[in-house]
Request: fold
Amino acid sequence: MTSADRVDRLPATRAEVAFIGRSNVGKSSLLNALAGRKNLAHVSKTPGRTQLLNCFELGDGTTAVDCPGYGYAAVPGAVKDGWAGMIEGYLLGRSELVMILALVDGEIGPTALDTTLLEWLRAHELPFTVIASKHDKVKASKRDRRKRELAEACGLTAADVVWVSAAKDVGIHRLRDLIRHWAVTADRGA
Ligand code: GDP
Reply:
């Protein structure tokens, strides 16, 4: 739909979900898989838009926002101005935000910046779900253990984490259903 550098420049919505994660976690690949398109999230990586909130329409007046990938020290909770300030302003100020999908690389688990973000989301009592990416990169024989370890490192149980593979189409349908559920539930004022 549009890109914005501030929460008050985003379009009106009934309910919104946000995608956030460090650069290279697989966010663009996941957005493309969810949309069933090859190059939708390419727009988010276009120079000039990498620092913006990129807004997509989900249907029924609901929206998804792709937050710029974080890296180095720039993550909400770690810095108070510039890039992180913009994301913080969005996450704290968007009243229609019903769910934050916090991406963690399933192959390597949460990094220090990922856990900083999760602690910050908890401290502000924001609704979030951890999405573990690149399911296909974890050997089948190690998956159960990895699922437990990744969840634990995020302060969660294995059942709380949604595993996906954009490359092998794992968990995409389920995540689509969950997003629909979150948006619809919020819309009913539940
Ligand atoms: P972003 O920076 O978070 O948008 O990450 P990208 O979607 O650009 O992905 C970063 C790298 O991880 C690319 O080389 C992708 O091909 C790879 N990648 C993303 N998702 C998957 C996945 O589900 N499986 C595998 N094996 N690789 C993936």
